[in-house]
């Protein structure tokens, strides 16, 4: 299946909110939030604000039919000592997993990072999300740490694995 990767636009807000809600409600509990995703209006305002802010971006994976099936958010760390690092978040619709969508979004993150002089991309992933961990490791991310009880959700605390990619070591 082919998808087009592009920068998210305010007109994508409704589709991105729907994607976040769908992934957040899956039984696998892949996202930090288990409640509702942000509102369409908040998402639209966020995407508009990104136009004026060079240190962050949101990319979407869009099918030939125009359906948004993936999202990647990336943002530079603002502390002067770690401005060479950017944090990312990735989600792909269940219908489009294991089809190269996540990898294509990660490629976009690496391109963005190089353009913005980022040297390291990092992310958190739940230990039970074996599919995502496999994708990240195949892409070149390495485990850098384990954060116990790092996120609090209504049903309790969740651990997180910290993973990172050295941009200078990627092809």
Structural notes for this entry:
The chain is of the alpha+beta class. It has one domain (3-123): 3-Layer(aba) Sandwich (Aminopeptidase). It is globular and about 35 Å long. Helix 1 (13-24) crosses helix 2. The chain is built from four helices and seven strands; from the N terminus they run βααβββαβαββ. It has helices spanning 13-24, 40-50, 101-115, 130-139, and strands spanning 3-7, 56-63, 68-76, 85-92, 120-125, 142-153, 156-166.
Topology:
Elements: E1 3-7, H1 13-24, H2 40-50, E2 56-63, E3 68-76, E4 85-92, H3 101-115, E5 120-125, H4 130-139, E6 142-153, E7 156-166
**If strands are numbered along the chain, what order do they take across the biggest sheet?**
1-2-3-4-5-7-6
Number of domains: 1
Number of helical stretches of at least 4 residues: 4
The assigned CATH architecture is 3-Layer(aba) Sandwich
User: For the terminal residues, how far apart are their CA atoms?
Assistant: 24 Å
Short description:
Helix content is 28%, strand content 35%. It is built from four helices and seven strands.
Q: What attributes characterize this protein structure?
A:
single chain; 171 residues; alpha+beta; Aminopeptidase; 7-stranded mixed sheet; 4 helices; 28% helix; globular
């Amino acid at each position: 299946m082919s998808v087009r990767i592009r920068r998210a636009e305010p007109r994508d807000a409704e589709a991105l909110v729907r994607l976040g809600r769908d992934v957040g409600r899956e039984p696998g509990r892949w996202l930090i939030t288990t409640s509702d995703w942000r509102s369409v209006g908040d998402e639209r305002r966020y995407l508009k604000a990104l136009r004026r802010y060079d240190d962050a971006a949101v990319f979407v994976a869009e099918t030939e039919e125009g359906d948004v099936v993936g999202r990647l958010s990336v943002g530079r760390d603002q502390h002067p000592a770690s401005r060479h690092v950017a944090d990312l978040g990735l989600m792909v619709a269940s219908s489009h997993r294991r089809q190269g969508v996540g990898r294509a979004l990660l490629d976009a993150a690496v391109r963005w990072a190089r353009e913005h002089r980022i040297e390291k991309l990092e992310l958190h992933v739940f230990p039970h999300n074996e599919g995502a961990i496999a994708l990240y490791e195949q892409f070149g991310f390495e485990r850098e740490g384990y954060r116990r009880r790092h996120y609090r959700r209504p049903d309790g605390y969740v651990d997180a694995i910290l993973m990172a990619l050295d941009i200078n070591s990627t092809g």
